[in-house]
Design a protein that fits this description.
hydrolase, 233 residues, alpha/beta, 9 helices, 9 strands, two-stranded antiparallel ribbon, five-stranded parallel sheet, HAD-like_hydrolase_domain, Rossmann fold, HAD-SF_hydro_IA, DNA polymerase, domain 1, EC 3.1.-.-, hydrolase activity
Length: 233
């Protein structure tokens, strides 16, 4: 096993959000199906659960021109919703925009999410070590409210969101922009996330340190920065 040695003291650690710190409180398939049913659209939750990750993967690498900078990313999620609910929604005569608004609003509240069990303890431990903490996520302005609702806002000195920066992971421009916004060189930034490319290879290619969790076998409790020697396996 190869190891990459890291300085014991990292000026700033940036965390991804979904899949790293938090996850939907109820499976997406069940939530989408229940809300669609309230609007009169019937789609099996099992079908949604199967389609959603496939649709999301097709939107994975967003051209910079399609990423907003005003924090509002409703159009992006509208397209994902419509593709996920296709073909059932294609000939549905109901109010599509009302369904979009309900789902978009739902995931902007803390009740839609749950923290992974170790998160608070890990954040407290890093803060106790004097490590500055931040967020770097491919999300929109709703993240601010979610973090506040979950009682996490106090941990982070900076929250950087793709829809407020005008670029998304894994675009190299984003990582350079993050370094500029924070005012630290890339070598002083360390990204923790769950995506091998977005949170691992892409930021490392731009000079960041990084560590990728792989749940359930590799959780945040195994983060090397929590140990005394700061070694990344």
């Amino acid at each position: 096993m190869s190891c990459l040695s890291l300085p014991v003291s990292i000026p700033m650690v940036l965390f991804d959000l979904v899949g790293t710190i938090l996850t939907p409180a109820v499976p997406v398939g069940e939530t989408y199906a229940a809300m669609a049913a309230r609007h009169g659209l019937r789609v099996p939750p099992e079908a949604i659960a199967q389609r959603f990750p496939l649709v999301l993967s097709r939107y994975r690498c967003r051209p910079r021109a399609t990423v907003p900078s005003d924090g509002e990313d409703r159009a992006y999620w509208r397209e994902i919703l419509f593709e996920t609910l296709s073909p059932e929604i294609d000939s549905w005569p109901g109010n599509r925009e009302a369904l979009v608004e309900e789902l978009y609003g739902h995931y902007g509240g803390g009740n839609a999410w749950r923290l992974y069990p170790e998160v608070r303890g890990v954040l407290r431990a890093l803060r106790k070590k004097g490590v500055r903490l931040g967020i770097l996520s491919n999300w929109d302005r709703r993240a601010h409210g979610v973090l506040s609702d979950l009682g996490l806002r106090e941990f982070f000195s900076v929250i950087l969101l793709s829809a407020e920066l005008g670029a998304a992971k894994p675009d190299p421009y984003l990582y350079r922009l993050v370094s500029q916004r924070i005012g630290l060189p890339a070598a002083s930034l360390f990204l923790v996330g769950d995506d091998v490319e977005n949170d691992g290879t892409a930021p490392r290619a731009c000079g960041f340190g990084s560590w990728v969790c792989r749940r359930p076998e590799r959780t945040l409790e195994m983060l090397p920065l929590l140990s005394a020697n700061g070694v990344l396996s």
